């Protein structure tokens, strides 16, 4: 006979575990989202939740896990943001509101990376945006 799995109430976990689980759930929610900007915003929220979990870590391994997940999501946000900006700039109906949103996405992506190639791509996209204004 296979024992039944029992669920443990979230309140019985440590503060770190609760925060980490909340961050993972937020990330899972983002994966189901279709709109690029909505998904990016949800991923940014998940990044903040992983950072909060890291602050509650009691062990090095917990800190490492939370920060690794955060870094993976940061890379995902960078890729999604750059792809979204490129796609949007390829269209001819870019508005001033779009320019503000695209600039904000590039600013966020820039703050998440130190990779020189990515930073060059961000600068090229900024140049394209400034030619629109």
| Shape field | elongated
Query: Oligomerization state of this entry?
Result: single chain
Strand percentage: under 5%
Compute the average pLDDT: 91
How much helicity do the residues have?
over 70%
Report the biggest beta sheet as strand number plus sense, adding barrel if it closes. Answer: none
Reading the helices and strands in chain order gives: HHHHH
How many structural domains can be distinguished in the coordinates?
A: 1
Number of DSSP E strands: 0
Q: What is the number of helical segments per DSSP (H or I, 4+ residues)?
A: 5
Structural class: mainly alpha
Q: Uncertain runs with pLDDT below 50, 5 residues or more?
A: 1-6
Distance from first to last alpha carbon = 69 Å
Radius of gyration: 19 Å
Question: Describe it for me?
Answer:
The chain has one domain (14-132). Helix content is 77%, strand content 0%. The protein has helices spanning 15-31, 36-55, 60-90, 96-112, 116-132. Helix 3 (60-90) packs parallel to helix 5 (116-132). The longest helix has 31 residues, at 60-90. The protein starts with 14 loop residues before the first helix and ends with a helix.
């Amino acid at each position: 006979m296979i024992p039944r799995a029992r669920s443990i109430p979230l309140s019985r976990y440590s503060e770190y575990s609760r925060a980490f689980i909340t961050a993972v759930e937020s990330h899972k929610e983002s994966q189901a989202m279709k709109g690029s900007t909505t998904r990016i915003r949800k991923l940014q929220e998940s990044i903040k939740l992983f950072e909060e979990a890291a602050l509650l870590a009691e062990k090095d391994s917990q800190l490492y896990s939370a920060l690794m997940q955060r870094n993976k999501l940061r890379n995902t946000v960078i890729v999604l943001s750059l792809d979204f900006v490129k796609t949007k700039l390829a269209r001819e109906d870019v508005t001033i509101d779009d320019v503000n949103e695209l600039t904000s996405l590039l600013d966020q992506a820039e703050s998440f990376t130190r990779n020189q190639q990515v930073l060059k791509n961000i600068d090229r996209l900024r140049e394209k945006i400034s030619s629109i204004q």
